[in-house]
């Protein structure tokens, strides 16, 4: 059975409203003054369990911290000072007799406005779960289903009649049976902790600085140039080489994900998924060490660490407990 819960932040009102929900989730802010002006959690329906949200509202509440705790995961997020919040997260679970048999966790980083990231964070996880449920049990079939779901989500975004602008990066981690499938486009990153806190990157950032990505773009007739700040960009414009949306660059900036599988065995502890606002300032092992020390506070501490080190980007971080899936 699929069951849905959804988080939204807006700037209207000055209170926090919460409607009944089936799983325990907690949202906190660093102070009453910094609390998001309105948080609405609609009543769940029977279509699917989806927890999706944005770390903070725009404009007057940019400095708000939001922490969400769910079943086996936690999220912390803070908007950067430069523009409206363009990060998002989502969780989709499929349950049989109340037991989570399949779960998809995602972190998303938009650019060029919120339209694309809003759309992708609502659709991608559901598309991935639906495709995987319809696929054969073989590992290759599951990986191909995830790939197809990414491409289908991009097609849906590009075909929107209102012509949604901008684009979005995404990293998802799907737990199915005894395996963890990681997929991504762009520079959101997933890092696995195993065997007592050893960090292993599960994704490699899709940026124009990567030689393979530059060669792919150039083979397609595009070019990559280095800006005055030292950042490599597609057609002199976009720093990531793969994303959802970005219609004007679609010939080169593809939504083809890289999908990998890791068997969940004894020693797999948790996975950290975060936007580049974290990874630009915090190393993979450093993030794993912080979570290993104290899972209850690590999400907020890592967001604060990135900001203290000078991050001016949105920062969104999700930690997923993998030990609960071990059999």
TrEMBL record:
Enzyme Commission number, as recorded? 3.1.3.16
Q: Which InterPro entries match?
A: PP2C, PPM-type-like_dom_sf, PPM-type_phosphatase-like_dom
Recorded catalytic activity of this chain's protein: O-phospho-L-seryl-[protein] + H2O = L-seryl-[protein] + phosphate; O-phospho-L-threonyl-[protein] + H2O = L-threonyl-[protein] + phosphate
Q: What GO molecular function terms would the record report?
A: metal ion binding; protein serine/threonine phosphatase activity
Keyword vocabulary terms for this entry: Hydrolase, Magnesium, Manganese, Metal-binding, Protein phosphatase
Enzyme superclass (EC): hydrolase
Required cofactor(s): Mn(2+); Mg(2+)
Give the PROSITE patterns listed for this entry.
PPM_2
Ranges for domain PPM-type phosphatase: 72-322
Q: Where is this region: Disordered?
A: 16-35
Xref: SUPFAM superfamilies: PP2C-like
One Pfam match: PP2C
Sorted alphabetically, which SMART domains does this protein's record hold? PP2C_SIG, PP2Cc
Q: Which residues form a coiled coil?
A: none
What's the protein called, per UniProt? protein-serine/threonine phosphatase
Its source organism is Urochloa decumbens
């Amino acid at each position: 059975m699929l069951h849905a819960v959804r988080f939204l932040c807006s700037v209207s009102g000055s209170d926090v409203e919460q409607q009944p929900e089936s799983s325990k989730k907690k949202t906190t802010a660093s102070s009453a003054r910094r609390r998001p002006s309105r948080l609405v959690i609609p009543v769940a329906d029977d279509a699917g369990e989806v927890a999706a949200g944005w770390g903070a509202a725009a404009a007057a509440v940019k400095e708000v911290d939001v922490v969400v705790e769910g079943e086996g995961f936690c999220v912390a997020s803070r908007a950067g000072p430069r523009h409206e919040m363009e990060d998002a997260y989502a969780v989709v679970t499929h349950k049989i007799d109340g037991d989570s048999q399949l779960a998809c966790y995602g972190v998303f980083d938009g650019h060029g406005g919120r339209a694309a990231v809003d759309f992708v964070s609502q659709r991608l996880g559901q598309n991935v779960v639906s495709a995987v449920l319809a696929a054969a049990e073989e590992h290759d079939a599951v990986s191909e289903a995830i790939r197809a779901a990414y491409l289908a989500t991009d097609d849906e975004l590009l075909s929107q009649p209102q012509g949604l602008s901008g684009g979005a990066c995404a990293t998802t981690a799907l737990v199915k049976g005894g395996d963890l499938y990681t997929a991504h486009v762009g520079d959101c990153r997933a890092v696995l902790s195993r065997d007592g806190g050893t960090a292993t990157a599960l994704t490699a950032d899709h940026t124009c600085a990567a030689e393979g990505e530059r060669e792919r773009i150039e083979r397609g007739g595009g070019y990559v140039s280095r800006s005055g700040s030292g950042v490599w960009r597609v057609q002199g414009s976009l720093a990531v080489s793969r994303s959802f949306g970005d219609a004007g660059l679609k010939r080169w900036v593809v939504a083809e994900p890289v999908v990998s599988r890791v068997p969940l065995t004894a020693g797999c502890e948790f996975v950290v998924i975060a936007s580049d606002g974290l990874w630009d300032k915090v190393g993979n092992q450093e993030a794993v060490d912080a979570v290993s020390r104290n899972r209850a506070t690590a999400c907020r501490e890592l967001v604060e660490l990135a900001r203290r080190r000078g991050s001016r980007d949105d920062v969104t971080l999700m930690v997923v407990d993998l030990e609960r899936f071990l059999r």
